[in-house]
Amino acid sequence: MQRRDFLIASLRAGAAFGAANAWPAFALSPEGRAFDAAIAAQPWLKPFKGVTDQDLRCDALTLSGRWPADFRGRFYRNGPALYERDGQRYHHWFAGDGMVQQFSFGGGARPAVRHLGRLVRTPKLAAEQQAGKFLYSAYGTKIESDAPTQGTDSFNVANTNAIEHAGRVLAMWEGGSAFAMRPDDLATLGPVTWQEGLAQMPFSAHPKLDAHGHLWNFGSAGRNLVVWHIDPAGRLVDAQIGETPYPGGMAHDAAITERYIVLPLPPIKLHFGEDAASGQAFTYEANEPLRILVMRKDDIAQRRVFELPSQMVFHVGNAHERADGSIALSFVGSPTPEFVMNTASSLLAGHPGSFGGSSTQLAVLDMRSGRVRVESMNDIVEFPRVHPLRNGLDTRWLLTAATWAGSAAKPLWFHGLQLRDLRTGRAQRYDYGPQTVVEEHILVPKPGAQGELDAWLLGTTYDVKRGVTRVNLLDARHLADGPIAQATLPYGLPYGFHGNFTAA
Ligand SMILES: [Fe+2]
Hints:
Elements: H1 3-19, H2 31-41, E1 56-58, E2 62-65, E3 73-82, E4 84-85, E5 88-89, E6 97-105, E7 113-119, H3 123-131, E8 161-165, E9 168-172, E10 179-181, E11 188-191, E12 208-209, E13 215-221, E14 224-230, E15 236-243, E16 255-256, E17 260-265, E18 268-270, E19 282-284, E20 290-296, E21 299-308, E22 312-321, E23 327-334, H4 338-349, E24 359-365, E25 372-376, E26 380-385, E27 397-403, E28 416-421, E29 427-431, E30 436-445, E31 455-463, E32 468-475, E33 485-488, E34 498-503
Antiparallel strand pairs: 1-7, 2-33, 3-6, 3-34, 4-5, 6-7, 8-9, 9-10, 10-11, 12-13, 13-14, 14-15, 16-17, 17-20, 18-19, 20-21, 22-23, 23-24, 24-25, 26-27, 27-28, 28-29, 30-31, 31-32, 32-33
């Protein structure tokens, strides 16, 4: 397919989503009030209330513990944040407008730790701020309006991940452009067009930085697939276009190896503007396999599709090429689509159901025979991360948010961290304890250090009792000891998805 055709296909997809705006609107509902009542009974849900249009700022977080003098830089997180406007409330966690959180660490034993939270000023947000109401349908929520759409960026919420690369922050979503923001003040600079003629081609939310600073990413729309290669200066090296083996399916995260891109394609299709009554933003095709598409980085037409038993997958850990030519892939998978199909909606309504339960999976993909072997670990985890300089290389340690039986209290959600040794299978854990909700944590290399565990673990938690969000720093070699230092905000943040750290 030619690039122009791809663009036209993307724009048509946008037009089709726009047509959803003609569907009947749900009446102004008491959903917001009902949710407020749910918070009173289950205060851990409060971050799903979301934010208003105001920026969030704190110039001096409350510090405790011992901050390493050489921990200096900016920690970004992104996630859905604005859920309510003019009496309307979204019906799915993934629907909210994205807000990028920036935590800046000045270094030294008593560092200045600052926070800035700003909504990504997408065309959708700007139009809805001006109108004072939602204008565009979102995951799980139909909105009636005649607001114009010009491709998927008309309803891009830029709410899934944020990374600072080549001097700008990229706020990313799965179905459209990345939005650039200024690191200094998180001012939104606009959607990134990597090359003329490629505007609005999806740049999905899980790019992978290789050891040389090159950014690899993909995008999927309808039948089409694009693989992006960005150099360390932020310039496009190449954009290859092909077809997906699972048209219309969700393509969320991919791993890289030295020569390949490894893209899981779970049997799920997404729908914008679903029927408000059905509560379904996705269709799960349980009779379809989990496909894993392996493409050569230098020619994505050279590829192999592996088929595994049906399961839901959002995130990969890492992949690498083994001496025998096979590819080892770690990922997190769930036998049921319970979370995305039901829980991510019921959370927004204030009555969380079952979280399903996703676990660490280790697959070996035989590139010669097309056979695949999978081993499931006995754990309940999400948000897998590895050492950021080891994408595509053999990694020993996989960090995840985790929950497990025997916790001090009935877990609300993820309440701990797990570092799994993929060589021995053994796992180390740290339990943040009851009344704490644990979000994604990442590995941050110590300055000048090489070893996988010569790193800090950095991530946010929500303190349910105090209603505040906290940044935690742990030593990867001593996970069980818990945080060595913490910085606490005077307010709570919406639960987010993903983030990254840039050393200063
Ligand atoms: Fe994700």
